[in-house]
Specification:
Helices cover about 45% and strands about 20% of the residues. The protein is an alpha+beta fold. The chain has a three-stranded antiparallel β-sheet.
Length: about 100
Amino acid sequence: MDIKEKVKGLPSSPGVYLMKDSLNNIIYVGKSKNLKNRVGSYFINSKAHSPKTLKLVKNLKDFDFVVTDTEFEAFILECKLIKDIKPAYNRLMKS
C-alpha cells in the first residue's frame, strides 16, 4: 500500500506514530492529538518543512501508529518509546 493511501486510513484520534525507513527501522517517533492531520502534514506543503524534516520525509517508507485515549497518554507513550528505541531523527531534532 502506498504511504499516502495509508495516511488516508488513519483515525482522527490522539496517538503516537512511528516512522520507518526502507529497512523497517523506526527512525522517528511523534505524538499527535489528531493522527490523520499530523502524519498527513508530512506529505503536503513541503516548502514549509525544515531541512531535517525534508530529509526525514525522503527516508520514510512506512509508518505504524498507536491510538491513545488522550493527548497526554500519547505524550507519555512517545517519551517511553523514544527512550526505548532511540530513533535517529528524534536525536537530530533536538540539535
